[in-house]
Amino acid sequence: MNKVAKNAIVVISSSILAQFLAFLTTSFCGKRLGETAFGELTTVQSIITYFTLFVLFGLQTYGTREIAKDKNRIKTVVGDILLFRIILFIISFVLIAVVALCIWKFNHDGVLAILLALYGLTLLPMAMSIDWVYSGLQKMEYNSVYNVLKSGVPFVLVYIFLKEKTQLYYVPLFTALALIIGVMFQFYGYFFKERLNVKVRLNKITMLGYVNFGLPFVISGLLAMINGNVDRVVIYFSRGSAEAGIYASGYNIIFFLINVVGMIFIPIFPVMISYFHENSKEKLCELMDKTSKILAAFIIPVALGGIILSKQLIILLYDKTYVSAYISFSILLVYVVILFFRELYGYGLNAFNLERKYVKAVAVSAIVNLGLNLVLTPKYGMNIAAIITLASEIINFVMMKQYTKEIIVVPNMKNIVRALFPGLLMAAITLLLKYNNINIIMNIVISAAMYCLFIFITKYITMGEIKSLLRKG
């Protein structure tokens, strides 16, 4: 097995485990805190992602690239980026402190203010993370351990110690502790296992270079985050923490699925870049078609089964107090279907050196998303917020497809229609088991097994195609 394939397997497997542990942690929090405290927690987590983006500043990409190009510069690159990020952390934390004080003074919301300040502390270990160093060195085993630590430690601590809503503040403290442990592991590997050092030569010119490089990442990331979580923030401040918590319960499942599609593209994205730069249009279109087939094979049954079992899933993962989330959750499942296929064009735009077109599409959809949420969500609530999220993703899909049509044409509709036949057969079994009161876990297992059988019986996808795609990745 070559090094690239080994790294891909290590990253994907650890990412799946880390995301699953993070998913379970959020589920435990929802069950044990109740919808009001859970709404406060998830709202602060949504807010803090904007500051996280600012602190990281897209320098993971820069650092990885520079180290991969010239490993002799590693000491200076690491020292300068760490110092620059610490400066960004100080700026961010001051802003967070000001926002927290304003919330406490004008909204009289002490819980939200304290949570925001505590989560602000997590930005320091995030700023000091050197996962990008190991990416540049192609030693992904360090990043795999780091990913599992930062998700696994909170999972264990939340499961053991979080018992009631008065312990709400434990969650950011556990998160901070996990990140500190993860960074200590990274530093141990850097200083003691790899025997590397750090040099700081940060100056005005270097800082301006970082700003020029990172600012487009920050802007595009902010726009993407508006599409991804502004609805939850608007719901909290206009409809209250209880509705925000209920809405977040379904969104937690959606967020897990969004992370899955990112993992699918880890081995595929570099191949897209390679085929484009080699001007191998036929191979590129074949790759995109096969990727589309795999996406359809995964997301169609997940969406159909999720909609059918929406109430039961919410109750299983949280409890009956969250059951009203099933409508918004079902709408968001349709949104995820659109997102999966939109990612073909999104990754394509970045692979084809059309990043500005990508940012333009995201900007348009983000403006629509934000505007409609501010106008409609305060009056109509979380279900309309889910519809707005779906609508903004359709805008993304249409624009990105239009921008890439001269380079690739992906037969998504053909693949969706073909995947619907085994998907509908599975859905019939899911409905039958549901109305015969079969346990939901057994229902999911049986339905998934039958679906796998159906896609091979109908020859929608063959093992040969899967092996061929994996070999190319």
- What is the assembly state of the chains in this entry? single chain
Shape: globular
Fraction in beta strands: under 5%
Low-confidence stretches: none
Give the strand tally.
Answer: 0
Can you summarize the main beta sheet? none
Q: What is the H-and-E element order?
A: HHHHHHHHHHHHHHHHHHH
Total of helices? 19
* Radius of gyration (Å): 23 Å
Give the N-to-C terminal Cα separation.
12 Å
Fraction in helix? over 70%
- For the residues shown, what is the average pLDDT? 91
Q: Structural class of the helix and strand makeup?
A: mainly alpha
Quick summary:
The protein has 473 residues and is mostly helical.
Layout of helices and strands:
Elements (H helix, E strand, L loop, with lengths): L2 H54 L2 H11 L4 H34 L2 H12 L1 H6 L2 H7 L2 H22 L8 H24 L10 H36 L1 H24 L4 H9 L3 H28 L1 H8 L8 H26 L3 H26 L1 H23 L7 H24 L4 H18 L5 H10 L1
Helix pairs in contact: 1-3, 1-4, 1-7, 1-9, 1-10, 2-3, 2-6, 3-4, 4-8, 6-7, 7-8, 9-10, 9-15, 9-16, 10-14, 11-12, 12-14, 12-17, 14-16, 15-16, 17-18
Task: Explain how this protein is built.
The protein has 473 residues and is mainly alpha-helical. Helices cover 85% and strands 0% of the residues. Helix 17 runs antiparallel to helix 18.
Summary tags:
mainly alpha; 19 helices; 85% helix; 0% strand
